[in-house]
Amino acid sequence: MSGFAYENLFAKTVPAPAVRFAGYPKYNFIGGHNDPTLIPVDGLIEATASALRKEGSKLAMYTAAQGNQGHLGLREFVKSKAKLRGIDCSTDDILITAGSGQGIDLINAVLLEPGDTVILEEFSYGGAITKLKREGQKIVGAPLDEDGIKIDALANILKDLQGKGITPKYIYTIPTIQNPTGSIMPLERRRQLLKVAIEYGVPIFEDECYADLIWGGTKAPPAIYSLDRDHVIHIGSFSKTLSPALRLGYAIADWGFMSRMIACRSDSGCGALEQMVVAEYFSQNFGEHVDELSETLKEKLDTMVEALEREFGTTVEPWVPKGGIFLWMKLPEEIDITKLVKPAAEAGIALNPGPEWAIEGADSKSRLRLCFALTSKEEIREGVAALAKVCYEQTGIPAQSGNIRRRS
Ligand SMILES: Cc1ncc(COP(=O)(O)O)c(C=O)c1O
């Protein structure tokens, strides 16, 4: 650092410095990016013109004169979309946020103090884990199976904590297309989860940011919020259905809780133009857009699964999801995926190593998550082949590509 020694003045709690952006690699399988060919550019241009004609003059006022819960038209749309998840709410129950990430931040701000305990699924959204670790919360991982949180194990955790006089502040779950495993929690499991949570006096924090992207006729059970609005806080996002760059999401909660979320906010609301445009575009085109997007995502998933089978054979164990944008997988135990990150990056491949998506203690060393939404099918094939090559060079696994034995 040159010039003035700001570091002498930094707050004790300031996070470690950010890394400067250095562009994206060719085979970018990380993060929650979307398919660039399916951004409805023409539709958004029309929606922008139409929204500005109708409401442009309101941009003269903070929140476009819609109040601090967000644009009414967008909340009307969220209300109608929430019905698809079984949620019957009013626009007063909805808060528009800067992505669901801000929803997580605000809920944490309302509930958490350093040293508090929260329960997360043993594998969970890396962003949520990082935020909690930074704030000094204790995270307890609840074991998962192919249907989501294992209820018996959760009940044991809650009982054990109760014995130590600890009431966790929430149980954070991604029940519909879990990140990273891709599971969908069945209705009966949702009911059991609620029952246990209520028994121990712990609210459920439900994150449904992938629930609109489900394919193949699979119908997800209703959101947990729809089963009990008193014990559940629900968040969702437009990042996955439309664009992560627009930074729009929402929370659904009762006023007692939401009024505290609003009080924790210091950004004067989300950009009003984005809200107007998404309201305008999605109130006409939501069903059509997500159907097309889901169809393309399913094709890309199939391409990735085929490429993995060809390049890794039986050495990879993928959890094939019924929706979303990620594939979670396991390589043989002897592979430490964190050691592959650097050589993979040198070969132009970015991946999410399992440990970043795991609560401490969960068996994650040989797991990884690949996002299939951003890259083209050709890049998926090439990138998976390049990853298998890196993996072979570093570990001797996989020894074959298709039926052909690899040579160093
Ligand atoms: C489960 C989950 N929740 C929240 C987020 C945050 O996304 P955004 O803030 O873009 O809505 C993500 C991003 O990938 C996610 O996977």
Overview of this structure, please?
With 408 residues, this protein is α/β, with parallel strands linked by helices. It has 11 helices and 17 strands. Strands 2-10-9-8-7-3-4 form a 7-stranded mixed sheet, sandwiched between helices. The protein has a 4-stranded antiparallel sheet with strand order 11-12-15-14, covered by helices on one side. A two-stranded parallel ribbon has the order 1-13. A hairpin with a 2-residue loop joins strand 16 and strand 17 (404-405). The longest helix has 41 residues, at 272-312. The protein is globular, with a radius of gyration of 22 Å. The mean pLDDT is 95. Bound molecules: pyridoxal-5'-phosphate. The site of pyridoxal-5'-phosphate has 14 residues, from helix 3.
Percent in helix: 25-40%
The major sheet is characterized as:
7 strands, mixed
What best-fitting shape do the alpha-carbon axes yield? globular
Radius of gyration using CA atoms only: 22 Å
* Order of SSEs: EHHEHEHEEEHEHEHEEHHEEHEEEHEE
Mean pLDDT: 95
Number of helices: 11
| SS-based class | alpha/beta
List the ions, cofactors and other small molecules found in this model: pyridoxal-5'-phosphate
Task: Pick out its properties.
four-stranded antiparallel β-sheet, 11 helices, binds pyridoxal-5'-phosphate, single chain, 408 residues
